[in-house]
Amino acid sequence: MSEVYAARRARLRERCAAGGSEAALVTGGANVRYLTGGAPPGAALLLVPGHDVLVCAGDPFADVTGAGRPADDLPVLVLPSPEGDPAVAAAERAVETGVRSLAVEEHHLTVSRHRAVVSVAARTRLVDLGPAVEQQRVVKDDEEISALRIAAEIADQALGELLESILVGRTERHLALELERRLIDHGADGAAFATSVGSGPHSGRCGHVPTDRRVEEGDFLSVCLGADYRGYRSEIARTFVIGASPADWQIELYEQVFAAQRAGREALVPGAAYRDVDRAARTVLEAAGHGERVGPRIGHGVGLENDEDPRLAPSAMGKLDACVPVTVDPGVHLPGRGGVRIDDTLVVRPEADGGPELLTITTKELLAL
């Protein structure tokens, strides 16, 4: 895999050169990992002509193996003190090599850290690298999609096992903790994000923090979880009815959200505008009278971060490419009653290849558990 990361760094170096920068300092955690294969928190990556170096503080790899380590061919500079700042040390290294211009990720530097970099590179022209690495990360290669596919399988397994257990009487918090344990049991490095379980009037809320409310007969139960596998993060949400057959209002609301989610999935084709995917799903819910209850976006990219580019939102600029993994996750919450969330992780594929590839395959049928 070393050549994969070297090729990624070469692409970034070419982009910097085209923009007039001789070197680049990368400090965003996910960006550093994308370009190196693995790095501890706070590490900085310096790209200078003919030489790259990963700068870390302390003893960063004492307990790290496998996917958490950088590529074997990448030089690593370890600062003698854990209090050292890798970004500042990397900037000093750039100055020592004689570069006259250095691109930095201003959006990943605090004000104080940026000032420290400026102070050690006073005679070097600093320019903003901007979201160059984030943009490079949007289209995933086969290895990345394979990791996402496994992460999705793990989440499906954990959710499937939960659905086979007794749910009535258990708290939202207990169910969330059990799901996260099952993710690890099936090979995940951890949860991709804080697992959300909402029951009854809490169901359908985006990002609901589980409480001690106990699941009751007739509740809607909405679950949103994801697995982190080798740094790549899946996402899935499903909504079920507990115990008795669903009420008419539950069937109606579920069918409306499901139709919106299906419309969003079907809009995932290479060349489709981000905003058009959002519009496809949002229009369905607006027609059903839920326009004010729809969130600010219908989906987003996934990868080394759970929430990354592209954003599928009304004001988003850009168009989809093939091999871009995204979520489609509409939801509606009715205050005091509950609601529905349906979320899948998919990979954009051309029609010739069968259309969007669905990675999360747990049934979307409205089940009474």
Automatic annotation (TrEMBL):
Residues 147-349 form the Peptidase M24 domain. The keyword Transferase does not apply. Pfam families: Creatinase_N, Peptidase_M24. Keywords: Aminopeptidase, Hydrolase, Protease. InterPro entries: Creatin/AminoP/Spt16_N (IPR029149), Creatinase/aminopeptidase-like (IPR036005), Creatinase_N (IPR000587), Pept_M24 (IPR000994), Peptidase_M24B (IPR050659). Residues 8-139 form the Creatinase N-terminal domain. It comes from the Bacteria. GO terms for molecular function: aminopeptidase activity. This is Aminopeptidase P family protein. It comes from Streptomyces luteosporeus.
